[in-house]
Amino acid sequence: MIEGELDEPERSRHLHGATRHHCDNVPRLMKNLKSTAKLTPVQWAICTVAVIGFAFDTYEILMLPLVLRPAVVELTGFAPGSPAYTSWARSLFYVPAFAAGIFGLLGGYLTDLFGRRRVLTFSILLYGVSAFASGFATSIEMLLVLRCLVFIGVSVEFVAATAWLAELFQDPRQRENVLGYTQACSSFGGVMVGFANLLVVQYAAQLPTIGGFGLTVADPHAAWRYTLMTGLIPAIPLMLIRPFLPESPAWKEKRAAGQLKRPSFGELFAPGLRRTTLVTTLMVALSYGAAFGAIQQIPQIAPGLPEVRQETQNPPPNLAPAATRARAAQIEQRTAASLSSTGEIGGLFGRFLLAILAVRVVSRRKLLHVFQVPGLIVMPLVFAVSTLHLNWLYVGAFLASAVTVGQFSFWGNYLPRVYPLHLRGTGESFAANIGGRLVGTCFAWLALTLAATSDAAYAPRKMALVSAGIGLTVFLLGFIASHWLPEPKQEELPD
After folding, report:
1. C-alpha–C-alpha distance, residues 49 and 171, integer Å
2. pLDDT (tens digit, 9 = 90+) per residue, 407-437?
3. Cα-based torsion angle of the residue sequence 430, 434, 435, 438 in order, rounded to the nearest 10 degrees
């Protein structure tokens, strides 16, 4: 027989195998080209509720950078940049995140044990009530405890929601679209909290006095208090609607059949999942590091901008000292809220870009590089250069948020595809809470520590330079680590 030629039986087996291979791939290829399944009214309701939930997760978290400075000053009397101020600012950033990392990890475990919908409902109630109560804080310690409860609720809600959505939509393309676009709406939360803060800063004096319940506050019309209290708003519609939505069918069926394995943290480090767990946890931590160590420090940078200083240092004549200080604080808060809103619009752009590319770019590593590679240039330029001019910083806040926040949506799409059903909540929770909340938020502590100075006038500029260094470092480390990121083995969710 001539070399390379097949005898008849072998040729038949070869052709039959090739034909079967191509035929078996037809459904998958067709799904990649177009998803024909249309959303049902119930699925539309699910998506709407998910949008509200994701948006207000961000809303609750991004309150802190806006209220941090005025809250710490009022409740402690310490000057910004001083060691005592820095100590409490670090605590308010990191202690709630630490609590969220520990209890959020437990929440992921409970999500696998008791179901996605039930845990979702209780997590929303927790963060809504705690956010409202924060507006009545009479001490910095009370504010810290309530912020811990808010973060715990948000952390649990995110993990339960992504697992819930991923399992409710079986079609791979439809699932990617739903996860991508509902998470994209997270950034509306940042826009809304910036807008809410602007409104309360402007109309705080006309709002009802904060007090009662035997509590006395130093400034019953403080804008930061009203901003915190608005966190109750999302809990009302979500608590009314979510209990009537369906549980994850895959989880429910396995639970009813007695086939649902008990979740185990140890299984995350079994040979088949160890690399996935370690790499994703590290990379999620670095993604959060860019947000907490750089982007969320922009409100601390704003008071040092030349335009802001000029406006605050040139008050109208014959203005009393107390009124002058109040006017300067209002200008700084207004500028910080405006910059934060611009950054969230950038984050919204990044999330929508991820949603669009998620169904078009096959390789998950290449999809992530769309955000990591530009970030290596954007982060140092934004914080080292654009912080010299207000208009430049608006552009910089948009770009830095786009390349950073887009990665958050990536993890929401990626993690459900690499963990089996009985470990989905636990695995997602480990990466998001241990990596993101526990380790990633340490970069806020690091930024505030490195930027501490006794020179109040230089404090904003020093924070900008520190943020530039942190931003470049975490993006570089994330890009390097991405080369060990496992590619999902299939489009369908693993059982």
Report:
1. 20
2. 998 998 899 889 988 888 888 889 988 898 8
3. 160
Alpha helix ranges (H) inside 204-317:
223-229, 235-241, 249-256, 274-293, 298-301, 306-312
What is the secondary structure of 45-61 as a DSSP string? Answer: HHHHHHHHHHHHHHHHH
Q: Which residue has the tokens 């912080």?
A: 387
What ranges make up the beta strands (E) of 334-433?
none
233 vs 486, which has greater pLDDT?
Answer: 486
Q: For residues 326 and 245, what is the distance between their CA atoms, to the nearest angstrom?
A: 47
Enumerate the domain spans of the chain: 45-484
Whether 30 shows a pLDDT value over 50: the answer reads no
pLDDT at 34 (0 to 100): 45
Does residue 355 surpass a pLDDT of 80?
Answer: yes
With CA atoms as reference, report the closest residue to 157 among 197, 133, 186: 186
The Cα 200–Cα 187 span in angstroms is 20
CATH level 2 (architecture), domain 45-484:
Up-down Bundle (1.20)
The residue assigned the tokens 């809304």 is 192
Report d(CA 267, CA 272) in Å as an integer: 9
Give kind and range of the element (H or E) at residue 393.
helix 390-414
Tokens in use for 234?
Answer: 């999302």
Tokens of 412: 């929401």
User: What pTM does this model have?
Assistant: 0.74
CB atoms within 10 A of CB 494: 14
Q: Is 215 strand, coil or helix?
A: strand
Place of tokens 């079986």: 170
**Could you identify the residue written with the tokens 């394995």?**
261
